[in-house]
Each structure stands twice: as structure tokens, then as C-alpha cells.
């Protein structure tokens, strides 16, 4: 789970399932500034597809990386614009 | 082009005529180029305005299981930045009803996934048993409660609407609903939202 990204904030959504990882990610991103990187730690395997889909369909965010490690799914989302 | 062909053989002999035809073509080309530019500009404009998608869901069911799909889709669409309207009518109103939303039941009868046959499922109290089973699964799975999803939806700007006609039909009061629920709306409002939407769903 080690990552080279300069993380601004970590969001822990372990134990939460759809749609919470996405909804909470969106809320956390809203509170960040352009250039910030959000680390999202989830246990929901569906978050791999959902975070990617959300990032693809949402303006102003970029999915940097997704890491699967045991039962943890970690996503690195960068806010690219306000 | 084929319609132009027959006279061309004659026109080709007559050089000045061909020249004037060329001039008209150049003018037409200029006019067409200008037109394309105007159209491209207006297309870019309408594309920019269409960036935000819109979802309208009509929620008609008030059972425990059927309350989830509209709320999950609505809160997720809001996370995408979509404009979202959920129009609740008939039993769908119970989802927005502060007291009733906490007592929504799963129907044990007519559900082929239930571990008991319909004859047993029809016995008194079986809906409560089925609901408790489902509730336990939801808690174990870390799935949000209906109340949480309603709060999240309202917080993220989802317009949860309660159909006025069915509020009266069900003998509910506007005060019975969660804060932030829109009342005083009917089928025409719902249709306008549907016509405006990129995605429309009936649940």
C-alpha cells in the first residue's frame, strides 16, 4: 500500500459499502483545493470499478492510482481544478 | 454532383461560363465556411451547457427493499455532479415519511428468494421476520440506512419530491416528511423534469 503520491488527506471508508465510498469521496474532494491528492481506503471491492467510473465521469478530478492489497482497496484521487 | 454532369460537357466548351460558375462556387464556399463556423460555435455553446447531466427517478414503491435503489442512484448521481430529482408517489411517499421510513417492511410473500414457501410467508409476523433478516444483512454489510441515504441525498442537493395528490390520498400531512422534502408538486412537474433529463427511471 506504499505510494509515492503526496497525499493531502486520507479518507477512511473501511466497512462501508456502495454508495458510501463514492459519496464520501465526492464530499472530501469538495473540501480540498486544486492540486491536492485524496487517499481513499476502502474494503468494498466494488469501489475499484466505482471510483474509476466516478473519476471518469466527473470534471476536475483525476484518478492517479488504485492499489489492491489483501482486502484493502486504496484509491488516489487528485483534484485538478476547483 | 451527378445532376451537374450532363451540362458540364457543354459548359466546358464555353470558358467564360465555366469561370462564372467557379466564382459562384467560391462565394458559396465562403458562405458555407461562415455557416460552418457559426454552427460550430453554437454547437460548442450547447455542448458546454449540456455538461451537467440530469436524472429523474419516479419512486412508487414503499417496501424496505425498493426504497434502496432510488436513494442509492440519486446520491451517487449527485456525487457525479448531476442534477437529481426523485418524484415520490403512492407508496414511494413512505420513503420520505419520517416515521414510516423507519418501519418499511420487506414482503415475505411473492418473493421467490425467501427461504420459506409462500404459504408460510403469508402467516402473521413473517414480513417482520423477513425485514429483520434483511436489516441484519444490511448492518453486517456496512450498507447505509435509509435515513442516512435520505440525509446524504438532501445534503448533496437531490430534490426529493413528494407528490401532492398522493399525500392527500394517503391522508398524510406535509409536516410528516423529512426537512428539505419538496411538496406541492404533481405529475406535470414530474413530466417536465423527465423531459429535461438525460436519464429517467421508474422504480
UniProtKB/TrEMBL annotation, chain A:
Matching PROSITE patterns, A to Z? Answer: UPF0033
- What name has this protein been given in UniProt? Sulfurtransferase TusA family protein
Q: Which SUPFAM superfamilies match?
A: SirA-like
Q: Which sequence ranges form a coiled-coil region, renumbered to this chain?
A: none
**Family (UniProt):** Belongs to the sulfur carrier protein TusA family.
Q: Which residues form the UPF0033 domain?
A: 11-35
Q: List the taxonomic lineage.
A: Archaea, Methanobacteriati, Methanobacteriota, Stenosarchaea group, Halobacteria
TrEMBL record, chain B:
Give positions of region: Disordered.
1-24
Residues forming coiled coils = none
Q: Where is the composition biased (Polar residues)?
A: 1-11
What name goes with this protein? Answer: DsrE/DsrF/DrsH-like family protein
Supply the source organism's classification.
Answer: Archaea, Methanobacteriati, Methanobacteriota, Stenosarchaea group, Halobacteria
